[in-house]
Amino acid sequence: MTSTPHPDSPSPHRFPVVTVGAGPAGLTIGNILRAASVDCLVLEAETREFIEQRPRAGVLEEWAVRGLQERGLADHLLARAQLHTQCEFRVEGQRHRFSYTDLTGHHHFVYPQPLLVTDLVREYADVRGGAIRFGVRDVQLHGLDTDRPAVSYLDPETGRRTLVHCDFVAGCDGARGVTRTVLPQQARIARHDYGIGWLALLAQAPPSSDCVVFGIHPNGFAGHMARSPEVTRYYLECPPGDDPENWPEDRIWAELQERLGAADRPPLTEGRLIEKRVLDMHNYVVEPMVYGRLFLAGDAAHLTAPIAAKGMNLALHDAFLLGDGLIAYLTKGDTGGLDGYSAACLGRVWDYQEFSQWLSEVYHGASSGDAYRAGTTQARLRRLFESPAAAAAFAEQYLGKSSAS
């Protein structure tokens, strides 16, 4: 790996770990380190107010919440999160309830990512005394292929470049972050494009169902996910790269009512749209997730389209493994966790990738314009509704129970 020479800096600092990115992965790693009295510096390009309000995912799997709870990071979550035990498919105007808790004894938590980030940053910075710098610019990584890596950044208050020496860098800054730009040529990035878009919406309206609803419709997929008693997340399948301005509110609500309609249910409760953006559905995986002293986590290492609501869960899985591995090395000299980090993460990553691809065919086959895909979609749905074995297998994957935690 080619390293940038260290820049001159009038105020060098040192931390055992520098984490780039203050999302769920980076903040969880920081909290794990601080709980073991290991110093860590978290660098974040945005303000604290921004990351505490940024709309993102909201579905947490039970094992992920258990992992947060074991690390003292779930008190607010457990007090405020909604428990979901069922999901619902709406096909040809008919409702099909799917009770995954009855099949497995497990459930989902619904807790919007901004609330989790707020909890994690408060615990890290305000309670555990962790160092964090918001609004940093031009982050650069140095010496990652040596045993003396460093990170530098422009301080937003002084405008001067600060150099921080460290033992390890945790890259948790997402798909567009700096850590993705320093991967060596031999890095393998596997990518899958679904060829569809989703119009992602947040409505200032109460949920119209007590569970997640998936609309399978010839016009395209639609999804309904509660975020709070006052706010609901909706998705509408649309062409990739579509302009959100092609979707005025009256068109959006007409399509949502059509695609999510059911003969025995009242119309959706409508409200003001407070977010409207188009997501082009794609997945990618970086292999391995370790390059020298750089360890990738979360979306910096892999992206799973929101088709199966797995992204935040994978980020937490990475964070648990990486945080524990760093503690073992820095406090005991035990290299096992760090040596096995990439392989341990990628097992779950690829399992979730495969499930996302399978579920995409269920969601989008009816609207593909391909009679064969539409027919296989119907076959999959019939099997899901009629076969206890198929239902149990789906429930395990939907809950993340089929992967080792």
From TrEMBL:
Please name the Pfam families in this protein's record.
FAD_binding_3
Question: Which keywords does this chain's UniProt record carry?
Answer: FAD, Flavoprotein
User: What Gene3D superfamilies does this protein's entry cite?
Assistant: D-Amino Acid Oxidase, subunit A, domain 2, FAD/NAD(P)-binding domain
Q: Where is the FAD-binding domain?
A: 15-355
- Asked if the Swiss-Prot or TrEMBL record annotates the protein with the keyword Nucleotide-binding, the reply is no
Q: Does the keyword Nucleotide-binding apply?
A: no
Top-rank taxon of the source lineage equals Bacteria
Which protein are we looking at?
Answer: 4-hydroxybenzoate 3-monooxygenase
